[in-house]
Amino acid sequence: MAQGPTDAPLVFRKMHGLGNDFVVIDGRGAPAEVTPALARALGDRHRGVGFDQLALIETDDSADLRLTFWNPDGSRAGACGNATRCIADAEMATRGQDSLTLRTERGVLSARRTDAGLASVNMGPPLLDWREIPLAEDIDTLHLPIEGDPVATGMGNPHCTFFVEDVTAIDLAAFGPGIETHPLFPERTNVQIAQVTGPDRLRMRVWERGTGITLASGSSSCAVTVAAARRGLAGRAVTLDLDGGTLFIDWREDGVWMTGPTAHVFTGTLTPAFLEAL
Domain 10-123+262-276's class? Predict the structure, then answer.
């Protein structure tokens, strides 16, 4: 079982930000335990529900709520920007608030609703030191010794960003797995291929560790913006076009703010039989 002492169905929400989709379990009312086995079973798009990440909501002593994230392979994700935005947007609506705090492995993050009705989250300052990302050795994070001259950035997850002439010319399904497991990244890494398409505008595709190709990735979008600014390819506020839509990223003094749309698709229940089979 992955639910606690009762045999009641486990309620979940299916949400997405730009097609980057999530299963959200709220453990504040009835305590819920997420295990690797539950994450793998739920992440199966044929026999479970399917998601890019699974998010568990819990109470927190010094923030409005606490979030933990899981990948469909059963591993933990340190951050999930789009899921954080989706949950923050729904929670602000429920509470009748325009701002919120959420604790993740990155610390306490701030969220707000913009004048345009979009959800915006501060994903915190980027991690640029090799130990914090983390990398396996002390090297220049702006120019990794990997073919393609990528940039390493920490945004709660490790990120490896390649700047290319045409993102559509890269076979990401073939390219991503080898970089995800590169020896320089002891905790594996998210992989981005990015293209400058205009002044302060970037096109990005992403391979997420433990998941694969996704239509969007919030932490990856923040990492690409930071990498482009450090390389002098764009300013610190950019429009980022992903396979699933557009995000707006602003690297400010207090952190990297990410703004975009959210969607709550449906609410469902996991049956006791599904849970007992784990």
Answer: alpha beta
